[in-house]
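Researcher: Next entry in the queue.
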Amino acid sequence: MIDYTVVTARGSEERRGSAAELRADAAAEGAFVWVEFGSPDAGPVQEALEALGLDGFGAFPVGAVHHRPKVEAAGGAVLLLVKTVWYIEATRQVETGELTMCSDGRSLVTVRRGVVDPVPQVRERLRDESFRAGGAAAVVHALFDSVVEQYDGAVEDLTDDVSDLERLVFSGQRVDRNQEIYFLIRETLEFQNAVRPLAPFAHSLRQRRAGSDLFSHKGFGDVAGHLIRVDASIETCMSLLTTVLTAHQGQIGTWQNEDTKKISAWAAIAIAPTIIAGIYGMNFDDMPELHWAVGYPLALLLMAVVCLLLHRGFKRNGWLLQIDVLESQLNVERGGSTVRRTGPGALARRIRPSGPACLRRTP
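Model: Structure for this entry, 363 residues:
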């Protein structure tokens, strides 16, 4: 037995019947049927498709997970598979489900998988007579529109996390964030794979070249524009993450170079007294300084002077200091007015002894 909804101009009615009864109700004048399955594991899915003549796309893969959305047409029927997306902010994870819609304009079969469920809100709209008058095409449009609207919240949360990560990377803290960046890139890519394959279909909808009367509903153009904007937002997140990753790897290379220079400088300072001590520790008889009264303090003084000169030289060359390069665009308030400076000349630098890196802003 199959549960389905019969929609007429007078209203909608829930029914339960065999495949033959479903076929008869779908053939009634001025009515269309909607068969909705809340899981792809439902056994009667293929039976309902065959009863309504919507099995031209092959056997429905029970329990299968589709990784990409798609649009297919066969024998006057259309299969529209869209990915549902929700974002778990606590773990920064993008999760996806799917909604499959098969329709020939007189009947509709929908199969859903995942947390996002646009069906209840569309069922509420069946109470509206003008909505029912649109037939199965209006229901397909409403479901498609509801799924695309769900993308907005996920894109907003993802964008916030990308912006937060960008601020952390450029905060001046010497923390390796490659793993966090790669993780967000992977989640953004999953989101992009759920939306990008529908972009050509969205463009064809806006140009009214979708190839099926089912998509002639006037609202499909707006949904297509919305989908294109979402795709552009995801692409922006991906571009920003790629740029941040490149910049962060450059930061890590700079940190390593700074550490190498500091180690080399301190090693050079340490080796000078070692050489002097090594020479005076040879204990040759023909060394008059060994019996000189001021030889010992003079040797210590020589070591200190050499170390001091080396330290001063390395410090002047920046090998023992850390230079914080602040943002290149600064708002400098002078006399109550704000002056914006850009370019290399506007870089504010402060030299300070080596230590934990932190970003300092010039007031």
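Model: Residues 261-353 form one domain.
Researcher: Noted, moving on.
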